[in-house]
Protein 1
Amino acid sequence: MSAPLRIRYRFDLPDGSQKVLDLAFDAASFRLLNPLPPDPPFWTALEFNQCANCPLSATRHRHCPAALQMAAALEPLKALVSFDTVGVTVTQSERTVHVETTAQQAMSSVLGLVMATAGCPWTDHLRPMARFHLPFASETETVYRCVSMFLLSRELAANAAGTPASPNAAAPPGTERGTFAALEDLYGNLHVVNRGMSRRLGAATNTDPARNGIALLDTYTTLLPAALERSLDELRPLFDAWQRR
């Protein structure tokens, strides 16, 4: 059995102290393996502010899987204050990234990684992006990775069905909205999840970095259609060679 893959977030706080969050993931599936709270807080119960589009049943799932892992992740980060500037060092096997940013932006990066790997049926769609985690990515980088993930998922699904997509098939310019309608639908559902999670976190803590972090994550779900069109226009010149016949 392969050893877990690990990502460490180290926060250098304004008072000179440090907080560390270590995350371990299954090497094959990249599902989060961190221990769950032995006594989960009330706000992790599935039916507490349950997301309107949640497909899980409380008879089989007493707790929201994402909330359980969030509760564990938030515990060592209680000292963060939203607009404090913190140093964040993210250590992965492939690279180490260091940035100076706000606590809420740092929290957004953490929560996005946790939610994608915790077992929520909706955010689980983002697990391939989490496997190739790029902390503090720009809007264009995020759209590029998201679109690449989506198109690869369609190719793998087609292969599994025995009907591989033609490598020469390409949507004509200006049809991206139709091509990515399913992706936009997914992000619409992720918006519902983020709203539900924000309500949970409002009951979870008196400090606001976590809720603000979720709000920052949610900007991509609400702005995806415009960001997709804008970013694809920006990226199109890079693919000139692929358009040559």
Protein 2
Amino acid sequence: MRPLSLTDYVHNFERYGSDCAYVNRRNYRNVRWTYSQVLDLAYQFARELDQQGIRKGDRVLIWGANSAEWVATFLGCALRGVVVVPMDDIATSDFMFRVAQQVEAKLLVCSRQHSESQVPLPRVTLDNLPHQLSKHAVDRVPPADLQPSDILEIVFTSGTTAEPKGVVITHGNVLSNIQPLEKEIHKYRKYERLVHPVRFLNLLPLSHVFGQFLGIFLPQLLGGTVIFQDSLSPSEIVRTIKQERVSVLVAVPRILQSLKQKIERDLSAAGKLDEFRTRFAAAEGKHFLHRWLIFRDIHRQFGWKFWAFICGGAALDRTTEEFFGRLGYAVIQGYGLTETTSLISVNHPFKLGKGSVGKVLAGREVKLDPSGEILVRGEGVASGYWNGHELKPVAADEGWYHTGDLGQIDAEGNLYFKGRKKDVIVTSAGMNVYPEDLETALRREPEVKDCVVLAVEHEGNAEACAVLILRDSADPQQVVARANQKLADYQRMHCWFVWPEQDFPRTSTQKPRTNLIQQVTLDHLVGRAGWGASANPLAQMIEKITGSVPANVAPNANLETDLGLSSLDRVELLSALEDRYQIDLSETSFSAARSVADLEGMLREQRGQRVVYHYPRWALRWPVTWIRLIADYLLIRPAVFLLGWPRVYGRENLRNVQGPVLMVCNHISDVDLGFVATALPGRFRHRVATAAGGEAMELLRTPPVNRPFLKKVYDRIKWALGAALLNIFPLPRQAGFKQSFEYAAEAADRGYNILIFPEGRHTTTGHLLPFRPGIGILANALRIPIVPVRIDGLFEVKQAGRKFAHRGQISVHIGVPVIYGEASDPAAIARDLEQRVSTA
């Protein structure tokens, strides 16, 4: 029987009940949701709608970042026939207010950061949705009586205009896209069992229909797992792909371009770029398996399960597509618009049409008008634009929707995207120049990190202007000249501008904001340099963190008084800068920075100085965990017994505590870990990961080149034994703590308790040293109980030069666990924990 609404697919959530459906990245932690947990929350939200008197056809706004709670809210609305109005997480309160007025919304479901907005609506917070809905039963909710013509959602897009425009998507629109894909997927289900579950890293916002297809509609057909994360840092993306054993990355072209640049940057830093280019040239035309073997070093970085990119939202340049295709990955492009419920055409993963956006999906027709514009009609075309109680038609002219895009169709039925019709540059000779063709030629030049080609007026006619982001100190004139040699005479660029920042301003889907780029370019070309704060990446970061546009980002602007950065804002800015520029910033130096000039100076000094620390993830898994358990009873506990068995106070404080916990302890000597572990109950003691000096650990893991060979071997054995038997991991003192915190979060996700010595070094007086503010950052990130621990008596034994203590001379005090509120000040947390340890 043919499905009538999206709710007919709810049975898949029941079928895959215990399988992992979603993984949410929250700060440094990963929160995992099963299919049944998501469905239970959807049922509870449906009951919440009933309680608030929200009925079929009423509108509910969802405003927040991707999460399992977002999905459950969407499904809960669908079950009740309530119309979802999804909004970009980066949308402004003003835009949200105007949308709410247009649709006469009855409820706002938003993330905590948006909860203070002035939209006058009842609201529910996404961040703690399970707690808010815990009063409702999780029993099955019978879906509303729905037909394909019923509205599922209204997707608002503002484009470059100020007035919101809502596209009405019905259940039938979505089903018309799901069903042909479901039919094709069914042919390969027997092979999917070999790699189950298929894991999708979805970097597209759920507020966009394409993001919903790869985040909600398609994964449930396979029982797949969807992973959400906020960071778009290439290093973070690669790390997630490998650690989570991701199969498919879902992203916009900009992300693929960034990953390509990262691979080339890493190879260049290792002195292997020339050798890679030789392999790359030799791999052309080779069989897929042969290419996979040639580039096995790249596949090792991404993990052996990763095999495909799904790319949409914009056109992918041929250079990037060819790059990853040559490496042995499938690059699957699709094409569509919100008005066509995202999909018009899509490439088959095993029958790729290189350079194309695939073949037209079943159930829709596509043709080109005389100007080359793509026209489409069929069940996927949206019902209309929202206009209160009366819909404004999307399609006219016998049901054909004019996409505004230019295309080409080859003899095999592959569709090629040629660019936006309105972006075509018409030269003085009357020739049409497509910016995408020029951008492709520019991106083939190794000095070009990114580019945008715009039309600028010249003597009453249009001329193509290249806006470039270049590597190092490349000569833009030579870059443009080489690109021009690959173009026809009428396509050649005679005007260029080097963008003064590290990246272009971008939308939520990472598309360059061409209207702003064009304005800035024109201002510079005529010598005015009119330059809005929002074009400055530092200003963009501050705006995102504080929620307000900074009035002054001049070099002498003070971070606190002029830019309004609180201590927590500074911590977030530190992380954002490390993500963007892929460097490690000294926490101490960053704390001392007072002005924008100080930050810019730090960035110049640290550029290219990222230190690589090695984190022994194998130490968290079997069989090392068994070896460590045996070593605890055969080696560590007997050693502590000989050194001086401690008295333990406060163990009862852990009686009702469920792990994992974060333990903070004073630091006296290298044997502190043994005494703390001995004092803990068995359920905590056998699963402890301990932070140690990162710089010292890295010297053992990677000894200096001039160190004698045998001593190198000895150092590495010490490092391996420390990681295996004591489960220690590096925590750098000066810079690079972010990766260490991520490892600690990963260990906590696996059920390990984390032991930290926040003083950062051994005490020399017997008194507590000031706790470093990094412990406050980690406490905010992990969101687990924090247990203060203090060791007494060991310093006196150490000062006396004795190796052994009398029984009971050393004592371990375990304090009362504490959990700090959301967004607590890291420095205040550090001071409070210092006090708690001293009085434990």
Protein 3
Amino acid sequence: MPDRGVRRRVLSQNFLIDRRAIEGLVDGAGVSDGDLVLDIGAGNGLISEALARRGAQVIAIERDPALARRLRARFGTGSAVTAVEADVLSAPLPSEPFRVVANIPFGITTKILRRLLDEESGLTRADLIVQAEVARKRGTPGRGTLLNACWEPWFEFGTGARIPAAAFRPRPRVDGAVLIVVRRDPPLLDPASRRDYTGFVTAAFEGARPTVASALARTLPRAAFAGLAAELGFAATALPSQLDVIHWVALFRAARRSGAARPPAARPSAPAPRRPAAAPPPTRRRRSASDRPAP
């Protein structure tokens, strides 16, 4: 087993030790009695402990075997905290409604967000300590990124308190901040359309050379796109980063009405036409003596 310093670097471990910051995180999350809450990367157990004091039923997930043993020893059995040695990127998520309140490993923030938001689960809200720049990028309205555009029909994003680097041990190079993710109720789109919508938005981002209109030209004629842009209040020459979730949902619905939101299914290939049998090569007749030219 690698030593403690190596594990901290490999697992991106920066433990939150500031008690006021921990209380502020839990208070801001609004956890109440009986809530099922995941503490991802539970580490020293201080966040799990604060959640349990609010009456939550806590699953403290820790990938580091040594820390997981300490958590089990700290909370024992029969308490409100269940310590689990697991990797959240592969461990099953609860099917019943649950929340996440955690200081997640900075090095795998996007992977954890994908794990929580890309698949259907019971997640209702997440309050996650991430790098301050990541919280600003994901949580500030109007910052159009591909991932946000893919997630926002089902989740709303916001930001909470900034947490200085001095509140962590070992101290990271940057400050942290709380990223808040709340499930929409109702969602902007039926979850059954999620795969088609994600493909539609991804194609628009990846194919925009240089504008959304050019990327969607085969899906939405320029005139139809311009009409939608005028109706929704964005420029017909907009870039993907300039559109918000309301724009993307409206464009997707318009494309779906036209039958082009999903790439058309490939038509079954027709059987190849039968080639006529090749005529046999002409038989070469051996010249008789009468056929030969006279000498």
Protein 4
Amino acid sequence: MTNPSRLGEDIAAMRQRDPAARSNLEAFLTSPGIHALFWHRVAHWLWRWEWFLLGRLVSHLSRGLTGVEIHPGATLGRRIVIDHGMGVVIGETAVVGDDCLLYHGVTLGGKNAASRNEVEGRRHPCLGERVSVGAGATILGPITIGDDAVIGAMSVVLKDVAPNSLAVGIPAKVKKRIRHP
């Protein structure tokens, strides 16, 4: 159902990105982001096997325990870090790439049924790999956030963001291109 090595990857990613996580055991026992990812994998497995109600129930219970709401239909990559977690919402058709970092209060939401991406059938955002999303940021609709992009805290993103870009504001605008070593 869920791969134990994924849990190990989650813990390692949390330790790498969160200086407050002093040991693997501490990260495992006290990180709501790790707990939410674990329970999402269970719910997603049920969802893929078309046990929709059971998947939604697992997701609902996880939200109550962690404060993180991830729809069981959402597709999440590897080594995602949900730091602090409270108030994070990830919608049904959202896609989050590998090695992303989401802070508390992040929403990956849909605008409405009419905004569905006709090609991919998505209503929610797609985050590339290594995307960082600041606290309280809201990303809405079937848009794409490119690899290595950074979304500033409290920003509202309504349009695609190119790879290696910093987007901030309401509505978010690209302020600069980020150079990676």
